[in-house]
Write a structure and sequence with these properties.
68 residues; mainly beta; five-stranded antiparallel beta sheet; elongated
Length: 68
């Protein structure tokens, strides 16, 4: 979590997709202690241990980054 404001109080990884030797983790994040509002974000990894957040996060608000 953090240090960005949009994910300072929590995040939940929804799905990880491997594409062209990289892993893309789609997750929900919140800036509120009670999780009353959240956003959709993505992070990228080469090894599933070290992640780099997409610089334009959050890319969507109040919708799931994973289709149901």
């Amino acid at each position: 979590m953090g240090p960005e404001v949009y994910d300072q109080y929590g995040l939940a990884m929804d799905q990880i997709i491997k594409y062209k030797r990289k892993y893309y983790g789609y997750y929900h994040a919140t800036e509120y202690k009670d999780w009353h509002d959240w956003t959709s974000c993505v992070a990228i990894s080469d090894d599933l241990k070290h992640w780099k957040k997409y610089p334009k996060n959050p890319f969507n608000e109040k919708t799931s980054p994973v289709p149901l």
